[in-house]
């Protein structure tokens, strides 16, 4: 079983790089997606043996994202930039985290509190949503006494509005309660910080030195047509979708609340679809009316997640695209219908600025109208604390999140700008960093890093994404979760589908899991390099190039020549270029397999080169008839001279154990190995050595349980051959 390293050298692994996998670039908190995907791919397929590894992966994720167990249910923003999305389909990262969550949530109550001395002073976090929780977590890790003030009984903020069928309440409760417990964070519940003893001024008198305001957008936004408000006041059966979702969480609505009623939902975001699908579960026949287009490639595309829209379609919810609401019409004091003009565009150079064709209008009749076109902040605290400028706007430094009006106050999350849950989390961390600097008297200025997503490696084929596993629509008329997550076998298979396209320096999973003690680098001896360019064609990552260098004689330039060069940032050090180089100009500065190769003795038996990504535990015990097992990071990098050397030292046969087809960590290692085998078979036969003595096995056996049987079978076949010459 692999173990995450805990030695001092491993503590310095985190490397800040500008080039990252595109999924990590897209993630606001820059979660190490590739790294944990690799770790999942290395899990053994036995649930009991895998549990320890899952908890280690969870611990790694938890330190940076203590809400990752929630993200596994509701956040797949990283998948939007996956290099696989236009080929086999984006890697299902959200479901991989959901898979981890299934085990880690059960483990969370056993996780010990942070062992950190809280001696840096008191800070207040106002608002217990994702942004506030993340800020509190980070400040607590830095040694501050943190208190969260929240107006609700339960923390979680707007995440509490997500219906149970998408995010089970017990998952949310566990994540929030354990974050508070593990972080040693104090919580003041059902407290509105705006005036009196709970104003910011009063809290300062109580010793709080800095404040993070993350009160979110708890109030629904009024219905408008352009800049004009649409009047519906006084009509029965018109309500805000946000209030409906809140009432559902509080269990204050009966299960047949909308039975046999025609429900119209206005809005195109996730909240609108949460409200619509909730209304369906309450017995309603639902129609969604949205400004946006159905076309995902359009700038005016519907903002709701594709899974939300697909789920609504399956549940029989009607969706009317590109329509606004001009008027809400009632009859006898009750809602009757809405008048919906055509929306010709949603965004222009000014941003959100919808335009309508009022001559193209339609009426939609219904019994209930749910308005879900956005949310607004509570301005009470902001006004009472003097955080608005003369124009009534929040004047906040977008980099440090510090208020221009009060230097001890920092603001973030939806109260500053509405975004995804993970956007608020990122600002919570950003604010914690700024607050720490402010309290230490350090300049708040910080580097703005521009991240660049790495390109997909070259490969011949891509694996199709797994089909979504949902319960059938007719069984979804309840609030039980409908999504069926990955099994262990499915999670390992999906993690292996990841292209692992980011630089090794931004991942280092192979170092953390002990596959190799350090990252190797490729060096080029320019004096030997002939500039043939074979290395360029051998590299799947586009890191090998040819460049011109000067030829010097007695300090003078007498000409130029072409030599190869590897980009040190993007290079994977897979060794393909090294083994392909005909002049031996390329070498790995560190190759852990070299030590094992030197252990091959001059005696009969089988020499086996085994990929540690596919056969990670093959060398854990002695195997009969096995002369030597040489671990490598890819069989594609096993050099022809290594194989010939094994035969020269008396090996009866040589076997290469590679990853399963399409599972190679370096894309085409198996194919590269087979190319060598074809040529080596010819070479061996010229020396009177049968080609059957050299074999390649491509499969996955993380625990190495099949190795004894494979070696014995190979040995039995060798016995049928003539005796090797000495």
Overview of this protein structure:
The chain is an alpha/beta fold and 726 residues long. The chain folds into five domains: 8-111 and 454-512, Orthogonal Bundle (Fumarate Reductase Iron-sulfur Protein, Chain B, domain 2), CATH 1.10.1060; 122-217 and 377-440, FAD/NAD(P)-binding domain; 219-376, FAD/NAD(P)-binding domain; 522-588, Alpha-Beta Plaits, CATH 3.30.70; 593-719, Rossmann fold (3-Layer(aba) Sandwich). The protein is 29% helix and 19% strand. The protein has 21 helices and 27 strands. It has a five-stranded parallel beta sheet with strand order 4-3-2-5-18. A five-stranded parallel beta sheet has the order 9-16-10-11-12. Strand 14 and strand 15 (351-365) form a beta hairpin. The radius of gyration is 31 Å and the shape is elongated. The two termini are 40 Å apart.
Write the layout of secondary structure elements.
Elements: E1 19-20, H1 22-26, H2 33-41, H3 47-64, H4 68-74, H5 93-107, E2 122-126, H6 130-141, E3 145-149, H7 169-183, E4 186-188, H8 200-205, E5 208-213, E6 219-220, E7 224-225, E8 228-229, E9 238-240, H9 241-249, E10 262-266, H10 270-281, E11 285-289, H11 306-314, E12 318-320, E13 327-331, E14 334-348, E15 351-365, E16 368-371, E17 375-376, H12 379-384, E18 409-411, H13 421-440, E19 452-453, H14 488-497, H15 509-512, E20 522-524, H16 534-538, E21 544-553, E22 556-566, H17 576-580, E23 586-588, H18 593-597, E24 606-611, E25 626-632, H19 640-648, E26 653-658, H20 669-686, E27 694-698, H21 707-719
Parallel strand pairs: 1-19, 2-3, 2-5, 3-4, 5-18, 9-16, 10-11, 10-16, 11-12, 24-25, 24-26, 26-27
Antiparallel strand pairs: 6-17, 7-8, 13-14, 14-15, 20-23, 21-22
Helix pairs in contact: 2-14, 3-5, 4-5, 5-14, 6-7, 6-13, 9-10, 10-11
């Amino acid at each position: 079983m692999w173990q995450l390293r805990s030695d001092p050298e491993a503590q310095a692994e985190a490397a800040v790089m500008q080039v990252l996998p595109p999924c990590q670039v897209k993630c606001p908190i820059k979660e190490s997606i590739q790294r944990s995907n690799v770790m999942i791919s290395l899990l053994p397929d036995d649930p009991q043996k895998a549990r320890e590894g899952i908890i280690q992966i969870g611990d790694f994720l938890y330190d940076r994202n203590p809400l990752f167990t929630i993200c596994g249910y509701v956040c797949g923003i990283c998948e939007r930039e996956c290099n696989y999305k236009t080929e086999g389909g984006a890697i299902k990262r959200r479901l991989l985290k959901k898979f981890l969550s299934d085990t880690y949530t059960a483990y969370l109550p056993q996780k010990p509190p942070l062992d950190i001395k809280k001696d840096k002073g008191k800070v207040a976090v106002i608002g217990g949503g994702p942004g506030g929780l993340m800020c509190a977590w980070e400040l607590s890790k830095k040694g501050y006494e943190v208190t969260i003030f929240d107006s609700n009984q339960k923390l979680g903020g707007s995440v509490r509005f997500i219906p149970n069928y998408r995010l089970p309440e017990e998952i949310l409760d566990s994540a929030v309660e354990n974050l508070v417990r593990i972080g040693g964070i104090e919580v003041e519940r059902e407290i509105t910080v705006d005036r009196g003893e709970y104003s910011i001024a009063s809290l300062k008198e109580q010793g709080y030195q800095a404040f993070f305001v993350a009160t979110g957008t708890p109030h629904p936004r009024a219905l408008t047509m352009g800049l004009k408000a649409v009047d519906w006041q006084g009509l029965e059966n018109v309500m805000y979708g946000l209030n409906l979702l809140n009432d559902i969480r509080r269990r204050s609505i009966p299960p047949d609340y909308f039975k046999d009623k025609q429900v119209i939902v206005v809005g195109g975001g996730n909240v609108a679809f949460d409200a619509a699908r909730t209304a369906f579960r309450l017995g309603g026949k639902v129609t969604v009316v949205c400004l946006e287009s159905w076309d995902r490639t359009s700038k005016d595309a519907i903002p709701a997640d594709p899974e939300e829209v697909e789920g609504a379609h399956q549940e029989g919810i009607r969706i009317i695209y590109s329509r606004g609401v001009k008027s809400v019409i009632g009859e006898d004091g009750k809602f009757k219908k809405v008048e919906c003009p055509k929306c010709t565009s949603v965004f222009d150079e000014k941003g959100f600025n919808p335009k309508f064709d009022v001559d193209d209008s339609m009426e939609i009749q219904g019994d209930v109208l749910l308005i879900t076109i956005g949310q607004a902040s509570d301005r009470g605290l902001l006004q009472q604390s003097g955080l608005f400028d003369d124009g009534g706007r929040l004047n906040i430094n977008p980099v440090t999140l510090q208020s221009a009006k009060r230097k001890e106050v920092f603001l973030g999350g939806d109260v500053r700008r509405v975004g995804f849950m993970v956007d608020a989390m990122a600002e919570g961390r950003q604010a914690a960093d700024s607050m720490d600097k402010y309290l230490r008297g350090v300049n708040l200025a910080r580097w703005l890093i521009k991240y660049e997503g790495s390109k997909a490696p070259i490969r011949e084929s891509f694996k199709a994404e797994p089909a979504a596993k949902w319960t059938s629509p007719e069984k979804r008329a309840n609030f039980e979760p409908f999504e069926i997550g990955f099994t262990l076998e499915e999670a390992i298979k999906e993690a292996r589908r990841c292209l692992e396209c980011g630089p090794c320096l931004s991942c280092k999973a192979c170092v953390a899991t002990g596959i190799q003690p350090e990252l190797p680098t490729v060096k080029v001896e320019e004096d030997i390099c002939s500039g043939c360019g074979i290395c360029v064609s051998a590299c799947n990552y586009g890191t090998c190039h040819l460049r011109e260098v000067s030829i010097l004689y007695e300090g003078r330039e007498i000409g130029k020549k072409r030599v190869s060069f590897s980009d040190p940032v993007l290079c994977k050090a897979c060794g393909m270029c090294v083994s392909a180089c005909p002049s031996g100009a390329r070498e790995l500065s560190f190759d852990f397999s070299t030590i094992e190769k030197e252990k091959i003795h001059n005696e009969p038996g089988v020499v086996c080169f085994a990929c540690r990504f596919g056969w990670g535990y093959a060398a854990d015990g002695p195997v009969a008839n096995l002369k030597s097992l040489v671990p490598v990071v890819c069989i594609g990098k096993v050099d022809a001279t290594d194989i010939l050397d094994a035969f020269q030292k008396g090996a009866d046969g040589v076997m290469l154990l590679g990853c399963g087809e399409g599972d190679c960590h370096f894309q085409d290692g198996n194919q590269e190995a087979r190319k060598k085998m074809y040529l080596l078979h010819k070479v061996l036969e010229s020396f009177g050595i049968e080609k059957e003595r050299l074999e390649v096995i491509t499969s996955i056996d993380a625990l190495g349980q099949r190795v004894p049987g494979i070696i014995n079978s190979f040995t039995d076949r060798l016995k049928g051959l003539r005796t090797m010459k000495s």
